[in-house]
């Protein structure tokens, strides 16, 4: 029986090691899906890494033309096989250092290649989850081709039109040999998820354990329609003014000004005719901040968006916490992500309770979230791939609207300042200052 360990984020990792094997033709969004899966797992503190076979192939063949990918080209075949072997060897070595989910990002488009990955992983006690991305939506394929020719090192410095044509030729070489995972034949015993036009239709086969089902559930919720997520803290509260944490206070006069200005900031960023859904916490200061937004925006309150619960320290200033609970104050500074307030929560706890929010965000289109400093840090860390140990120290200023737009290779960020003064609620390590100026590295 494998021993059960809990990584503290509600995930039972039963000594599990999973290789997620991407499958599909070029330009089907495989790398994007791989990148999102890795980001999600890392956000949950599950060690995850992606091994992109193309990067290994580039060592040997940096800018090959489409003929390289002709399956009748023995030299190309040999080099591509060597690249796959090097990627898998590195992945196995990484598993030995404590890796839990390794993502093998390649086309893995033939049955032979999939069998080889399956046999190799199985021989090392690693489970295999195939994730196949199929797409017949011409618009999505074209967008991916455009993306590749703009961003891939394979075509750096080349004429964009010639690059696009070459990439299409490469795709047709793969089309000649590509076989979808076929449950009716010899691949019936494989564990797999097939995504058709990301988010439209899914097929799931033989999911074996909890972590696999978590990954599958996340990937099922993804879509690739364009959208943005807007984040804002509530307007300055009466507690923010007096340097007290937690509570359920109303807004200060300057916080009220922000609430009145927010519709204008949102209009400037979102536009007039785009439908927007607004999520707030259940606390008065976020609800008050969102109350002047247009009535046709659907508004929802989520308990999961409430501020980090500071337990016995709720309503105290940092100085009072240091005086009454000096050991706790020091312990929090030592490891702010994991420190749990007496009778309250840690940042790690907040991440666990935010998981349904992340899942719902992935399923949704445009959303504006009005929430709190700690919660916003956790959500921001998810989108911007911030190190969890550092995220609790990030400065998230009041009276600022943040727009995040997921793109194929990362999330784009734009900030809109309301230009309404507010206190700083940022606090550096060791400090008990009521309103401290953030240091450059916290920005
Ligand atoms: O984790 P730290 O840095 O203490 O920040 C979280 C704190 O931020 C505050 C402001 O200081 O949130 P909020 O924006 O909801 O007012 C506190 O209520 C909360 O305890």
UniProtKB/TrEMBL annotation:
Official protein name in the record: fructose-2,6-bisphosphate 2-phosphatase
Keyword Lyase found: no
GO biological process, one term: fructose metabolic process
Keywords, sorted A to Z: ATP-binding, Hydrolase, Nucleotide-binding
Enzyme Commission code(s) on record: 3.1.3.46
Enzyme class: hydrolase
Any one annotated GO CC term: cytosol
